[in-house]
Amino acid sequence: SYRKGGYHAVRVGDQFAGGRYIAQRKLGWGQFSTVWLAYDTRTSTYVALKIQKSAAQFAHAALHEIDVLSAIANGDPSNSKCVVHLIDNFKHTGPNGQHLCMVLEFLGDSLLRLIRYNRYKGLPLNKVREICKCILIGLDYLHRELGILHTDLKPENILLFSSIDASKDPVRSGLSPILERPEGNPTSGVTSLIEKRLKRRARRAVAKISEKRASMGGTVEARKSDRNIDGIDVRCKIVDFGNACWAGKQIAEEIQTRQYRAPEVILQSGYSFSVDMWSFACTAFELATGDMMFTPKGGQGFSEDEDHLAMMMELLGKMPRKVAISGARSKDYFDRHGDLKRIRRLKFWSLDKLLMDRYKFSESDARELSDFLVPLLDFTPENRPTAQQCLQHPWLKDKDSTSSPNESSVEKVNVGMSNLKIKVGK
Ligand code: ADP
Ligand code: MG
């Protein structure tokens, strides 16, 4: 991938934008870009530098992303809406071509890492609540004020950030919620560690689901984790606007990452803001349980899509016939009665029962969480509550926290920070 049209190779100390930004260390990467921690010599702060691959289609995508990010930053000058802020953008010419670069505020680890850090046991519900509020503030801003759909909401695309301004000095503040150092490199032909991990995780989740399908009474280990995350100040921001679009200008038909994909996208019956609300519910479930809500896989005689629709119905009840037959692809999965063509026998297991039986939630916790989530998973997209309506839901009202902040866990979490070496070039 480090060739003409591909990634720009960066070394620690490399300078960008006429010397304004100095590369410190790699934070992560995606299909289209590498992201580096950089020091901004003009403002004496740390920033995230996203360097796009150089080929025309990547440059085109970056221009679109910059458009969206600019609208987001312009509409929120006080930077309080739980969405990542664009600080600057410029072009950088290197041996592989010209790369569009975005300078973003520096954030911490993703919620996926937080879930993993907590060993997939699910986060305490008071933390889930705090995180959900942040995500909803971000979605409400995007949807209602800007008319933007994110279309790829998932734990990986929500990053933690510190209430104390870690961008001033992420080392000495010791408060930037970075749980672990990033691993691996984007190397051509070799599956990255993160991909491998995600696959391993998906396999585990699939195994659990089939186990669930096999025995209705199956349970998992107690959901209490041995890691204490009470001391982490969980605030977060929505990132990765590479796939975002303005309502009414949707171009892509297939949107969203598989496990977070709404039924109307699978059926191709058109989509709007409510696709993000579906992904939000899947994300909230995952935060609370440590498991993905839906992990479909194709099988003998049926596709991944049909399995996905079957899983949705097993949890949420039968899809209304009108909805089932309304999409361009409905005929691939449903007969004219609105029944799945190839998966005939469904095992219904309601969300509150699942939370109690499988994840050992108390009856009241299970009922309250499912009261919050089930309306967001309405098969009729127009019936799903908006982010604004969700913010009013009783589940989000502050409850007495059963656990107090734990100092030792703060230290434990910050161990990774001591490895963060800042090198400022001349
Ligand atoms: P892509 O569009 O190529 O997928 P992303 O915007 O998702 O790129 O960024 C890739 C990775 O870089 C993220 O998963 C995250 O680990 C890291 N990253 C992105 N933005 C930031 C940021 N503002 N602060 C810290 N890390 C970031
Ligand atoms: Mg990404």
Characterise the protein shown here:
The protein has 426 residues and is an alpha+beta fold. The protein has 13 helices and ten strands. The protein has helices spanning 56-74, 111-117, 125-146, 193-214, 263-267, 274-289, 304-316, 321-324, 330-333, 351-357, 363-373, 387-390, 407-414; strands at residues 15-16, 21-29, 33-40, 45-52, 86-94, 97-105, 148-149, 158-161, 235-238, 245-246. The protein has a six-stranded antiparallel sheet with strand order 1-2-3-4-6-5, covered by helices on one side. It has a two-stranded antiparallel ribbon with strand order 7-10. The chain has a two-stranded antiparallel ribbon with strand order 8-9. A hairpin with a 4-residue loop joins strand 1 (15-16) and strand 2. The chain is globular and about 65 Å long. Mean pLDDT is 83; it is low at 172-199, 205-223 and 401-426. The structure holds adenosine-5'-diphosphate (ADP) and magnesium ion. Adenosine-5'-diphosphate (ADP) binds next to strand 2, strand 3, strand 4 and strand 6.
What ligand molecules are bound, each kind once?
A: adenosine-5'-diphosphate, magnesium ion
- Strand percentage, roughly? 5-15%
Shape: globular
Structural class: alpha+beta
Average pLDDT rating? 83
Rg value = 22 Å
Got a strand count? 10
Largest sheet: 6 strands, antiparallel
- Treating each run of at least 4 consecutive H or I residues as one helix, how many helices? 13
- Tell me the helix content: 25-40%
User: Strands across the major sheet, in which order?
Assistant: 1-2-3-4-6-5
Parts with pLDDT < 50 across at least 5 consecutive residues:
172-199, 205-223, 401-426
One letter per element, helices H and strands E, the order comes to EEEEHEEHHEEHEEHHHHHHHHH
Report the span from N to C terminus. Answer: 29 Å
Enzyme class: transferase
InterPro entries: Kinase-like_dom_sf, Prot_kinase_dom, Protein_kinase_ATP_BS, Ser/Thr_kinase_AS, SRPK
Organism: Senna tora
GO molecular function, one term: protein serine/threonine kinase activity
